[in-house]
Design brief:
Radius of gyration: 17 Å
Number of domains: 1
Organism: Helianthus annuus
Helix content: 40-55%
Number of strands: 0
Protein name: Glycine-rich domain-containing protein
Pfam family, one: GRDP-like
Largest sheet: none
């Protein structure tokens, strides 16, 4: 995550993601827009600067977006699954290249930590 080329591309994709949200709002399209991990990294980083985040979103979208990381259900037909499918179609129709990006996709549940015992 510290390679400039990756970060610059992620910032550009974040801007495209925000553009899709704005476009959906203007067209009254309801879509739970699900970011890829590179976009989400930049979104979280943007939020680390609350005044800038607030000003930027109010200027571009007319509202501040809530960013809810609590929904983890990626099952078929669930909100994340449906939203991700919709944004893939919107992204690819508007921008051309695939929304899916190597190194920036959901990889499954985090493995449970292994507990080891130490004997003296």
């Amino acid at each position: 995550m510290n390679i400039n080329q990756f970060l610059e591309a992620a910032v550009a994709r974040y801007k495209g993601f925000m553009h899709l949200i704005k476009r959906n709002k203007e067209r009254n399209i309801t879509c739970f827009c699900v970011p890829t991990y590179d976009i989400d990294l930049i979104w979280h980083t943007h939020q680390l600067h609350p005044a800038s985040y607030s000003n930027d979103l109010m200027t571009s979208l007319g509202k501040i977006l809530e960013h809810d990381d609590t929904d983890q259900n990626r099952g078929k037909g669930q909100k994340l699954d449906i939203g991700f499918s919709k944004i893939i179609k919107q992204w690819e129709a508007l921008f051309g290249p695939r929304y899916w990006k190597a190194g920036a996709m959901y990889r499954g549940s985090t493995p449970s930590p292994q507990i080891t015992s130490f004997r003296s």
